[in-house]
Each structure stands twice: as C-alpha cells, then as structure tokens.
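User: I need a structural model of S9 family peptidase from Micromonospora costi for a docking pre-check later this week. Nothing fancy, just the predicted structure tokens so I can convert them on my end. Input:
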Amino acid sequence: MTTETSPPAAKRVPAERVHHGDTVVDEYAWLAAKDDPETIAYLRAENAYTEARTAHLAELRERLFEETRRRTQETDLSVPTRKDGHWYYTRTVEGQQYGVHCRRAVRDGETEPPVSADGAPLDGEEVLLDGNLLAEGHDFFSLGAFDVSPDGRWLAYSTDFSGDERFTLRVKDLTTGELLPDEVPDTFYGTAWSADASVLFYVTVDDAWRPYRVWRHVIGTPASDDVVVHQEDDERFWVGVELTRSEKFVVIDIHSKITSEVRVIPAGNPTGVPAVVAPRRQGVEYTVEHHGHRFLILHNDGAEDFALAYTSADAPGDWVPLIDHSPGTRLEAVDAFADHLVVSLRTNGLTGLRVLPIGGGDPHDIDFPEPLYSVGLDANPEYRTGQIRLRYTSLVTPDSVYDYDLVTRRMVLRKQKPVLPGPDGRPYDPAEYEQHRDWALADDGTRVPISLVFRKGTPRDGSAPCEIYGYGSYEASMDPWFSVARLSLLDRGVIFAVAHIRGGGELGRRWYEQGKLLAKKNTFTDFVACARHLVKAGWTSGDRLVARGASAGGLLMGAVANLAPDAFAGIVAQVPFVDALTSILDPSLPLTVTEWEEWGNPLDDPEVYAYMKSYTPYENVATRDYPAILAVTSLNDTRVLYHEPAKWIARLRAAAPQGDYLLKTEMGAGHGGPSGRYDAWREEAFINAWILDRLGRA
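Assistant: Understood. Predicted structure tokens for S9 family peptidase:
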C-alpha cells in the first residue's frame, strides 16, 4: 500500500551484465518490461505517492496555472506568412488545446500581412487543419508533417496520438476539403513535394527507430506501391528529406553525429536517381542550400567553426570559398534568396544574422540592442523576396516577430507576444526585470558563461532563492528565451540562471568538443562550478539553489547529484538520461548506435566503458545525503525510455532512504511531455510549485 510516508516498494530482481570483464548487477532491470502489468502498476503507485507527497501544493499549483493562463492571450493569431497567392497562419482559441492552421488569399495590392482584432479569424479565411478536431478522443496529439504542395492544392500532414513519434501520413485536397485515400502509417518527420505535386517523399524508421529510408509516394496510389528512394544501412547515420526554398531540388540529408552526405533529386524529375553532392568523409559535415546555378555548402572541412563555399548545381565538384573560416565565429546555417544570402551565426555566446547581397554591396550584420538575446530566421517560404521574417527574444523580451528589408535595412516589428496583466492587475513591464551575464571559473581554468534574469531589487546578499538550468550536449545552445510561466517565479523573488556549460554550442564547436566523449565530465564540473559561483558571488546560497535539466540535461542532473549533492536544495530531472551506460551498451534500443559518436562506444572500447561507468548517474548512486529530487518522465518516450528514471529513483531510495525522491510519469505522452497547451501549463505549474516549495517560497 502506498501512503504519504511510504513510497511504493520496488522489488529487487538481480540481473547481471558483463562487459570487459566487469560484472554489474541491475536489480531493477525488470522495470524495462513496459507491457508487464506489474510495471504499469508500479508506475501508477509512484504517481499516487507523488500526488500524496505534493498534495499540500495543490492550491499553489492551481494559482501558478491561473497566473500563466491569465498572462496569456488565449485567443491569438500568428503573423501571417506569404507564400505565392496566400497568407498562412495559425490561430489559437480560448479554451482549446491546439492550434487551428489557416490561410487566406492575398488581395489586390496587399503587401502587409493582415491582422485581426484580438486574434479573431481573418475575413475570408480557409481552415486547413484544426488540431482540436483531430485530437478529439485522444489524450495526446502531435503533428509531424504540415506541408502544403507547391501549387497550393494538397496538404500533407501526419499525426501521432501516443507520443512515440510514429506518425500516420495523410493527404488533404485543399480545393474540396476531402481526405484522399492515401494513408501511410509509421512515418517519421520530414516530407518533400515534387515540383508538379504529383509525388510526395517521406521517411520511415528501422527496428531501432532510426530514420533510415526515404520513400516516393505517387498521389492517388496505395502506400503498398511506394518505392524506396534511399536506404541508409550504416547504423550511425539517419536520414531526412526536404524541398529547397527554390523548389528546384528534393534534398536527402544523411547525417551521423560527425559526418554527413547530401543527395539531391530534381524536383521536376521525381523519379530521378539521387545524385551525391559530395561523398561522405569521416569527420566532415556539410549542408546544402540551392541558389541559382550553384549549391551553397556550409562545411567544417578544415574549418572547426565552419566555412561557406559553393559548387555547381549541374555538376557538383570542387568547393569554391565564399566565407572563410573565422575561429570563434560559428556559422550555423545559410538561407538563400534570389538576391541575398542570410547566414545564421554565433559569436561571443550570442546568435546573429549576416546579410550577403548578391552582385554587389557589402555584407552586414543585423544589430540588436540588448546585451543578451536570441535571434533567428522565422518562416521564409518565398525565394524571390526583398525582405525576411525573423524571430527575436530575450530573458525579458517576449517572443517578437520582425520583417527586415534586405535592401533598406529597415526592421518592422510585426508582433510581440502579448503578456497580459498578472495577478496584481499591472501590465507586464520588462523594465521591472534585469538580465545579466556572469562568468564562473571551471576547475581547469575555463571561463563558463551564466545568463541570469531577476526582478529589479532582488538582493545580492545570498538571501535570494535561485533556479539554475543546464543542458550541455549535442552542441545544443541554451540561448536566452522568454517564459510567461517563469514570471511567477521571478515575481516571488527567485533568480533564474542558465549555465552555458561545455558540451553545448554557445561558444562554438570547440566548446562542444570539450564536453563530449572522453571529455564529458567537463559538462558536469562546469555546472557545479556555475552553482558554486552563484553562491560565492552573492546571487544565492547553497540551501536556496534548485537545479533543473531535461533529457541529456537530466543526465547532467543525475551526475551533479552524485558529484556535489551539497550544492543544491533540490533537483528537477525531466525525461532524464540517467542510465546512459546501460542504454548505450544496447544497440537494439532506439538511437543507441547513432549516439556512439556523441558518448563513445562502450560495447567495443574498454576505456569508454570505464569512463561512462564513472559518471553515469544510475551506476554511481551511493549512500550519501542527496538533495530532494523530482524526476518527471513519459511512458511512451522513445528518446529516453521511462524505465531509466524509474530505476534511478528506486535505487536512490534503496541506497539513501533518508532522502526525498519523487517520480511522476505521464502515462500517455512522449519525450516532450503533455501535448496540449493547457496540459503543458499544468505540468509546468506542478514543477514550479515543487521548486518554490524547495526554495521556501511556496
């Protein structure tokens, strides 16, 4: 029986694993049996225990949820994006979980995106897809593909109702509103249309759930007639497919963690054989963008932070330099328009955009006023255009959509996400908050950046509570982002900090390389250094600091719990990769082989095995005083399997029973948690209430 004082008992069934002469006993391996009723019963008992242990926070959770809801304009409309003769946009409606995808015909002389009062439907709109209708009768709903054909007639879309990221692909006739009989189950992300919209390309996965096949489907024919266009047999690689902005080529991207190859099919000849742009070479990564007579090549061949080159689109060969490698300036993407190129880059820990005119004119960077911010291109479907759509945000500036004139350099704010008055009735004022960049010193002398946001007047005497967030893997950068839900923490005096640790990409490719493989522990020690620095610098104190991370950031949480348990008053680990060694040792699991270039291959390499075993959280649980831990996971997660945190919590309780450990499992969701916006707000309110409780601000 589960009560508030007695967590569910996890039976111990020893299972041995032997690698490189090392025998490991996993007493909770039985929890991996997802179809076993005993496993499900145990997870439900954990949920009941967590609910009982947090029952005193029910009122606070509801208050936090209502604060988010009150500050959000629930009925809203995105800035319409022009593509040929239509404006495309998404609406949300108060009380409804999902977006409504729409378009409206461009009217004579209309050059500005249309707007509506308070998010109301535009006059003359056409509803393409209503997520709320599709989600009826389902606890979970997610769109994979949403792809309108070049002629505007067809809509290819795919749906997932369980959270396992396996989608059923359908085609809708937008002239009649009817669904075609075409239906393809078990597809993955990524679709591309042929030029005449007679053919649709899509992707499927193998038994390890690795996207490995690109298929060609002829509209109006059964899926059983579909043809494999490319099959990737090297298990390190995954595939994707897309149509270039110019709509001239279907691009098949074949990528491992460190090597890539691109093949192209003329969109006007969809039955053509895919042509290789450049054969794969181990350690060389490149992407392709079509521009007129050439393919633009963004690559790292002799260029750690990447360089830009081009080659002939008719007969790809040598790469001709366009932008030379500049150490410290990481080139991340290139977008081609008829008369301009736009390069997305990163320097000094901040994102940026550089415009390169074609046929004359000096390149220039677009300037932004704040010391901390995040900027990137938004939807820009039209190839022949004189302006681009970009998205901008910071820790204090709500998501903002701008149109930027590529010739005059004039930038027009089209929309900033509304933030409605909070509980006190006062409108949101960014001037009442402050963002700051600080630096911690890692054990090896490396300076690690920290971004902070807090309400003005928050004391710097160590008395302020603080939440520190981290990730640090896959070269993913935790760039500044605005959060409505976070305001509820800031207004209660909590400082929010982001540790930009190695393994991420904030300071370029080298920053990533220094936090992976046999240098992975830098990620964990960097985070601890950031936590210690926040205390030393007077931002907070050790008993007022809660750490939070998700997925690979959840691995980080488990690692620092073992490494420096005294540094934190609590730890939130969402969909945490805490049993990394066991998973990476099993090639049959989803994504394992493709991960070996990120973590190493412990199956074949004894050094990697020993190194991973020395830091994997589950392997290193010991009898010590741990901070309170909240682990949140999802039963249908295919990226980090639910049993990793379930086993971790069970082992923590066995090794250090004096601690406070909670497990919350979403029984009908995937890696991203609940799918509906209100459900997601409630999940965030649950976590934030727990954090406030640990910080003494409940």
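Before docking, keep this in mind: The chain has a mean pLDDT of 96.
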